Amino acid sequence: MRSPVSGRHDPVDAAWVDVLGVRIQAPVTAGTNVALALQCAYFRWRLRRGVEPAIRLWALFFLAMAVATLAGAPKHALRHVLSPIELTSVLWISSLGSGLAVWAAQRATIASRAGLRRVGLERASSLQLVAYLMANAAWGPHMSVLIANTVVGLLPVIHAEAGAARGGEPSGGWIAAGFGLSMITGLVYVAELSLGHWLNHIDVAHLLMALSYYLIARGAAAPTSFPVLATRHGDVYL
User: Fold this and answer.
1) What CATH number does the domain containing 121 carry?
2) What are φ and ψ of residue 88, in 5° steps?
3) Could you tell me where the beta strands, DSSP code E, fall in the chain?
4) At 72, is the secondary structure helix, strand, or coil?
5) What's the pLDDT at 225?
6) What percent of the chain has pLDDT over 70?
7) pLDDT tens column, 136-171
8) Is the dihedral of CA 145, 218, 64, 3 positive or negative?
9) Total structural domains in the chain?
10) Structure pTM?
11) Within a domain: residue 5?
12) Would you say residue 41 lies in a domain?
């Protein structure tokens, strides 16, 4: 079955479970969406105390991704019971959250790496966000638009953060590695590389996304004086 919005095949329709009489389609996909949302929400919560502009923008990045990934759960699990308006609303929330996350990542890198070029780059970042919103308004929240915006928006972030790492700032290396892995995640999704009936290409992409978020959070938290994780045995820096 093809999605009426994205045009892509839905996750494996034969994989489902009943929960209190409600059929949950693609339960692994929906579950990993929720897990990603919780992971991003946790990273946002741990970064909330940051006062530096870049840290606050990384916190916004994780908040936006928490919303976007959480919206993916009903998109996959309840697509068969959602009305067209409800499904479109969920897709819009996911797309807008992803677009805001790209913008926040750009602005966080600009705030910490751009120097004198900051104003011009901030304007370019805002123009891309406006173009993304216009594309969604014109063609709907298609996955192709989301992927194109992500690739175009994050390649400069990877370049800048990798450059910072070469200049002696390890935090840039973690962030560049995280977003580099997210590009591989996109390839897995587009090529539909699956590991079987219960672990489709979206599930594999979600597992890679979880690792990429970990790497990004580790880099985002590196310049701060507080840990992203803490245990009874002491603070643990990601």
Assistant:
1) 1.20.1070
2) -60, -40
3) 16-19, 22-25, 229-231, 234-236
4) helix
5) 52
6) 82
7) 999 999 888 999 999 999 999 999 999 999 999 999
8) positive
9) 1
10) 0.84
11) no
12) yes
For residue 157, give the nearest of 171, 137, 144, 140 by alpha carbon: 171
pLDDT number for residue 16:
63
Per-residue DSSP letter, 116: G
Considering only CA atoms, which of 77, 99, 79, 97 is closest in space to residue 87? 79
| CA–CA separation, 131 and 134 (whole Å) | 5
Beta strands (DSSP E) in 101-180 are none
Q: Which of 35, 33, 58, 36 is nearest to 47 (CA)?
A: 58
Neighbours of 234 (CB within 10 A): 7
Nearest to 64 by CA among 120, 90, 103, 6: 103
**Cβ pair 61, 47 in contact under 8 A:** no
- Looking at the DSSP bridge assignments, the partners of residue 236 are 229
Q: Which helix (H) or strand (E) holds 229?
A: strand 229-231
The continuous run of DSSP H or E covering 18 comes out as strand 16-19
Q: Is the pLDDT of residue 98 over 50?
A: yes
Residue 45's contacts (CB-CB under 8 Å, 6 or more residues apart) are none
CA separation for the pair 68, 63 (Å, rounded): 9
Range of the domain at 195: 16-236
Give me the amino acid identity at 55. I
DSSP string, 176-195: HHHHHHHHHHHHHHHHT--S
Q: Say which residues have a Cβ less than 8 Å from residue 145's Cβ, sequence separation at least 6.
A: 95, 132, 135, 136, 139
Q: What does the DSSP 8-state code read for residue 50?
A: -
DSSP 80: T
